[in-house]
Amino acid sequence: METSRPVIVKRIPSRVTLKEARIFLREMEPILRIDRPQIVLDLSSVRQLDAAGVEALLRCMADAMKRDGDVKLAAVSPQAAVILELTRTDRLFEIYDTSTDAARSFSGFLPNAMRQVAKEAAAAAQGPPAVAA
Amino acid sequence: MIAGPSTGSSDHTMGEAPLALLPVVGRPVVHHLADHLLRAGIEEITVLSETAPAKYLRAAQRPGIHWMNASNGSLWGTAEAVFNQFAQGGAELVLVIRLGAYAEVDIERLVQFHLEQRNRVTAVEDSSVPLDVFLISASRRNDAAYMFRRQLTGFRTAQGRFRLNGYANRLADGGDLRRLAADALALKTRMVPAGRQIKPGVWVEDGARVHRGARILAPAFVGAHSKIRAGVVLTRGAVVEHHAEIDCGTVVENTSVLPYTYIGAGLDLSHAVAGFHRLVNLRRNVTLEITDPKLVGEAPASAPLRTLVAAASLAIFLPRQFLRGLFAPSQREPLTALPAAVHSPPVTLQGLAAEMESAATEGAPSRSASCKVHPRPEPTDSAQFPADFFVVRRYGDQ
After folding, report:
1. B95 - beta bridge partners?
2. The CATH number of B193-298 is which of 2.60.40, 3.10.450, 2.160.10, 1.10.4030?
3. Which of A67, A99, B171, B321 has a CA 20 to 30 Å removed from the CA of B281?
């Protein structure tokens, strides 16, 4: 089952410190305002990331999740990976090797609520379960 | 010992600090090396240096080692002069070590080999680690001069080769420094960690402040005047050198924290060397320059300056907290009432309570009369949080 919602891929600049994080959040604001945003952040060119940058990523994820969306990370550079591990935020994000994999993952997995609806629909279509003799 | 430029591709430094002058388990590598030589019977040790910054040299100076600073370009000339001085002073053999690799040479066997083979110069070799360790007969001044003029890379005559069978470490980068610290804690080397062993495998130096809420799992080392805050976990060979600070809740695993380094709160530092605003991650083989003091910072090496910085930060912190308390919006969420089911007696006891009530009204003794069931009192404050809740935190496989 495929979802038809668009996946937005955003490339993060090479340096994400306090100033750049503010600019990044300003740029992300309209994207995060849409319903169920599906966002992939490409961290392949990140060379310097600090606490403000990590906070910006977390804020993006929190805002996206408030609107029933998600933020996934892709192609994380070794430098960014070290900082994400250091700040224990690597376990909060889904991380993929490439942006394509990350974008594809949005259509591969359904949210739990939709999965439950689909399960109930399939059960209703099959009819009541047969009683064993 | 000569602290000069290396012959190899590595510069044997971290930041601007020569690795041989950095402390490992409490003392600079050069001190560990000097102790090894003094124990082996070497009578006089002179260290020649050219480029090392003053603050590292100051920390590495101690009685028993004579330090000489050579001016730019005169290192090898000074080395030749010192060699001649030793020869004139009556020395029979002179051991020349270029500071870089750390090697525990069996000096007694080396001397025996040198004398038996009647070598002028004997070079110590290791299969995996390039070493610049030479034993030279003091009477062979021309051979020594030839070597020094070629920065220990050329020899006048064929030199004898002595195979090292002790511990050796290349000490070329942060990864090697970390390996040396881990090997010292595992007692694979002859290095002895400074301080006292407070429990098997845990060494703590005098002046270290360890919060009682911190956990230190062996093997680990905590250097002098370092601060280990509440909730910190040091594990799997963590080494915190002197004057370092680990802030609340941080986990340090298989990592060396260099002197005067501050590690921020709530971090997960593993398989790394941290210091001088740098983080060398050994698993990913990445060196990061960290400018954010919330993650990795550095305290000043001078004690009055450290006190001044601490006083200034306190002077800023207190008014800021006061203003925040006055004007910041409250983060406290309104308390919600607990469901009634929480306060009602459990289902298993409800039947028993009913039976006792009926027995009490009839006045007849019951089988369970000795058992008293106190129905819970009606909650006066339904928002009160039950006291029998607790929190468990998990660190890796701990």
Report:
1. B135
2. 2.160.10
3. A99
**CA distance to partner chain A, nearest, from residue B40 (Å):** 43
A11 to chain B, minimum CA–CA distance in Å?
A: 21
How far apart CA B292 and CA B259 sit, in angstroms, is 18
Q: Considering only CB atoms, which chain B residues are within 8 Å of A83?
A: 288, 295
Closest CA to A87 of A62, A59, A65, A55: A55
Q: How far is A101 from chain B (nearest CA, A)?
A: 22
User: Which residue's entry shows tokens 């005067």?
Assistant: B260
B267 touching A (Cβ < 8 Å): yes
Predicted confidence (pLDDT) at residue B213 exceeds the cutoff of 90: yes
> Which pLDDT tens digit goes with each residue over B107-155?
999 999 999 999 999 999 888 777 889 999 999 989 889 988 888 887 7
The number of residues in chain A equals 133
Beta bridge partners of B228: B210, B246
Q: With contacts defined as CB-CB under 8 Å, which chain B residues touch A85?
A: 268, 270
pLDDT in tens, B334-347: 666 666 666 666 66
- Looking at 3.40.710.10, 3.90.550.10, 1.10.10.10, 1.10.3720.10, the CATH number of the domain B2-169 comes to 3.90.550.10
Give the whole-angstrom CA distance, residue A61 versus residue A81: 17
Among candidates A51, A78, A85 on the partner chain, residue whose Cβ is nearest the Cβ of B292: A51
- Extended strands (E) in B225-355: 227-228, 233-235, 238-240, 245-246, 251-257, 261-263, 268-275, 278-281, 286-289, 296-298
Q: Strand B93-97 vs strand B133-137: parallel, antiparallel, or unpaired?
A: antiparallel
Across the A:B interface, residue pairs with CB atoms under 8 Å apart total 43
Strand B251-257 versus strand B268-275 pairing type: parallel
> Is A58 in CB contact (< 8 Å) with chain B?
no
Contact residues, chain A, for B289 at CB < 8 Å: 48
Instruction: Answer whether A82 sits within 8 Å of B268, measured CB to CB.
Output: no
